[in-house]
# Entry
Amino acid sequence: MRTCRASAAGKLTVVLATLVVVLTGCGGPSPRAWAASVCGALTPWRSEISKLTSSTDQQMTAQTTPAQAKENLVRLFGGAEQASETARRKVEQAGVPETDNGEAISAGFRGSLEKMRDAYGRARDTIEGLGTGEPAAFYDGVRAAVDTLNKEYDASALDTSKLNSEELKRAFDEVPECR
# Structure
């Protein structure tokens, strides 16, 4: 029995080692495949953020109580935070493109989405911490939170013109998922 188990364990080790070599030897996705995956992750994210931004704008001008506004804004910013994390995770799952500076480029996209996610989370936390007893003070706090969010959001944007890969620039221009 010990020989049988040792033999099975040895075979499993060989299979796993072969699998690791095969998987790591393949390299990352092509620039076109990576661009398609990234745009596939970012397109629904952009739609969700646009929808949430519109809802936030409506909420800021709606005739609601501070408590209702607080509940809605916390939910909206929480949704934007989750949407940003989902997009970040999908970009991470896209891997590292097979191109010069692929790791840095992939990290740049993920880092930008992390910063956006965190900005939405801070805005949600700030609004969640506001008191609703004095409407003027509440809405001043909301405006300050939104101003901070906008600054952090702008600062986190990835400048795609600085992609150090002509292959990726071309891929982003050509793949249907990015149009």
